[in-house]
Amino acid sequence: MGRKLLIEHVHVPGIETLEVYRSKGGYTSVEKAIKTMSPEAVVEEVKKSGLRGRGGAGFPTGLKWSFLAKPPGVARYLVCNADESEPGTFKDRYLMEKIPHALIEGMITSSYALGAHTSYIYIRGEYFYVARILEQAIDEAYAAGWLGKNILGSGYDLDLYVHIGAGAYICGEETALLESLEGKRGNPRIKPPFPAIAGLYGCPTVVNNVETIAAVVPIVNEGGCEYAKIGIGKSTGTKLISAGGHLNKPGVYEIEMSISVEEFIYSDEYCGGISGGKKLKACVPGGSSVPILPADLLLTTANGEKRMMTYESLSDGGFATGSMMGSGGFIAYNETACIVRNTWNFSRFYHHESCGQCSPCREGTGWMEKILHRLENGHGKMEDIDLLWDIQRKIEGNTICPLGDAAAWPVAAAIRHFREEFEYHVKYPEKIKDPNHFHKQSFLSSKQSVTI
Amino acid sequence: MSIKETKFNSETLALCHKLMKRYPEGKHKSALIPILHIAQAEFDGWLSSETMDYVASILKIQSIEVFEVASFYSMFNLKPIGKCMLEVCRTAPCWLNGADELVAYLEKKLGIKVGETTKDGMFTIKTVECLGSCGTSPMLQCGAKYYENLTNQKTDELLENLKRENKRQTYTAY
Ligand SMILES: Cc1cc2nc3c(=O)[nH]c(=O)nc-3n(C[C@H](O)[C@H](O)[C@H](O)COP(=O)(O)O)c2cc1C
Ligand code: FES
User: Fold this and answer.
1) Is B134 in the pocket of ligand 2 (CB under 6 A)?
2) For A160, which residue in chain B has the nearest alpha carbon?
3) Is A51 helix (H, G, I), strand (E, B) or coil?
4) Are residues A30 and A174 in the same domain?
5) Ligand having the closest approach to the CA of A194
6) Cβ contacts (< 8 Å) between B137 and chain A: which residues?
7) N or C: lower Cβ tally within 10 Å for chain A?
């Protein structure tokens, strides 16, 4: 059994209440930080821990914190990104719903480290009931003196608020999130300036994912060096993975970043294998934005090494033969899943979610959706496959925020690894008329090599 | 439709002012989205131009600033909807586990297509993107509640219960 630092107590009855949470050692990181450490010392521990952002990009958290500008007399903000809208990702919801105080404790300790006196949790609108759980937990924390004025008699003040969004994937992008928090449309800002210099209301701001902030608790409690002992190389600590799709046991798992992908999928401790007695065909290991991999490349890297559930191993081989850890939204596909339909589904998502500021993304995602729709419905031409390739290349890197890249990558990877399946759709339009075409006729990609 | 005046009662208005205080002096526009949610829940589940004007007056901002925001976010309805909006997730992980079948089942059962409302004004079917419930798919949201791991039978029960309750399913966090 791997160590659990975040959700060890998830099944303890009443863990959502302050009393039970406290009885399991809750809020000790706040006591330790505020009573015995300087803010700089907390940042130092986070640096030592090697913690990397759990929202998708994997940027080192300690380093990000050290970039925060500290002009005298100007407010600083910590904003928690609880927008969680990347398809396949539901780990933050699980954590907040089951152990709300884990996030609140992390917010207090992190706010102290950053010198923030007002902090916000920006949560996606659809998670209303989770927001209510958080609001209750925050009320409890205020009543017990963990929030508010003069916390633990230290002179440190902190107000923490939940802010609700209203349904927009783009608001997960940190500058769009800040716009939204200011009561505007979620249009990403041009960077620089980065939020660390000019963020919320133009003030220095750190934006961190829910899981990142929750991980600060065990880091402060046990020390950064202890935390860094878990995992391999630059992938330190534990990671929450939300697993879905064709799996026997979908759900949220906390893993040490030292297990193999194979173990994660097939062992009974985790996903328990592919559902319905079918074979694994493909997998999107880190949320819809990261490249899809065929089963063989998922389990073994191009050099024949076992692929591990770490940032480095999942991206080994670059986009040619690798993928990314991303947000930890792990989607498994069995042999009956149609890759073209999946790609169309994702393209429709990105088209729907594009904020419309940049033409390559606004127009390109729509074109890709249209072309994929016609391929999937048996009206495609061979040239369409190259056209798709062309469009995705012209979106990537040409937009203000990475939503454009996120829309391009899944299309590129699907063509790269499953080109013959796209060609099949053009060659045999009558066979794919039924939307469940591959449910009836399994279509395992026989080709192992990279085609583009 | 509604003969209710577009105005919050004093309690709700106090809540709005409390929410505005969560943001620094002069930055109370931040409370726009939370207040729009309250307004939508209060006034029949959608935002009419009167409602948006009213919200603008509370925040002392221009109506266009409200419309700009209301039209950007998918949870704000700019047209009337049924009492129960069944929001079915259609994104890939749900699709793999039967979201298309769930939509087809609802359409057949209610005799309407996606985007339509039943004649009695009870149900609207809407398809939405990933709701962060991919491990328990297929699923739908109605009001603040998630209904997960749906089967035909569970869907039947849900519809029956909603009909019996016969009230508008809304959500607010407060
Ligand atoms: C289109 C888009 C959507 C994103 N959605 C999320 C999200 O839902 N949650 C999240 O934590 N980060 C999301 N991110 C990443 C954030 O921009 C940001 O990198 C992250 O919140 C930083 O926190 P971290 O360093 O703790 O990961 C998204 C980025 C993009 C480009
Ligand atoms: S794909 Fe439906 S909830 Fe995530």
Assistant:
1) yes
2) B22
3) coil
4) yes
5) 1
6) 244
7) N
Q: How far apart are CA A282 and CA A292, in angstroms?
A: 7
| Residue A111 and residue A72 in one domain | yes
Dist. CA A161 → ligand 1 center (Å)? 19
Is residue A1 a part of any domain in this protein? no
The region that residue B7 occupies, defined by phi over 0 for left and psi between -120 and 50 for alpha, beta otherwise, is beta
Same domain for A190 and A169: yes
**Looking at the predicted complex, does its ipTM rise above 0.95?**
yes
pLDDT tens digits along A246-272: 999 999 999 999 999 999 999 999 999
Q: Sort out which chain A residues have CB atoms less than 8 A from B130's CB and list them.
A: 85-89, 288, 349
- Measured in whole angstroms, the distance separating CA B115 from the mean position of its chain's CA atoms is 13
Structural domains in chain B, sorted by start: 10-72 (1.10.10), 84-165 (3.40.30.10)
Asked if residue A203 and residue A241 are part of one domain, the reply reads no
Q: Which domain holds residue A171?
A: 18-228
Same domain, A33 and A166: yes
Q: pLDDT tens digit string along A432-444? A: 887 778 765 555 4
A-B contacts (CB, under 8 Å)? 152
How far is Cα B95 from Cα B135, in angstroms, rounded to an integer? 12
Q: Which two tokens stand for residue A366?
A: 């729509």
Distance A387 CA to ligand 1 centre (A): 30
Pair of tokens at residue B63: 């109506």
Write down which residue in A319, A334, A349 finishes a domain: A334
Same domain, A112 and A143: yes
Q: Is A397 left (phi over 0), alpha (psi -120 to 50) or beta?
A: left
Q: Which of residues 176-235 of A touch B (CB under 8 A)?
A: 180-186, 201
Q: Which of A202, A228, A254 is the last residue of a domain?
A: A228
Q: In chain B, what is the straight-line distance between the N-terminal and C-terminal CA atoms, in Å?
A: 27
Q: Residue A145 and residue A22: Cα distance in Å, rounded?
A: 13
Nearest ligand for residue B147 CA: 2
CATH code for the domain of A371: 1.20.1440.230
For residue B136, give both structure tokens.
């328990």
Is the C-beta atom of A188 inside 6 A of ligand 2? Answer: no
In a domain, A418, yes or no: yes
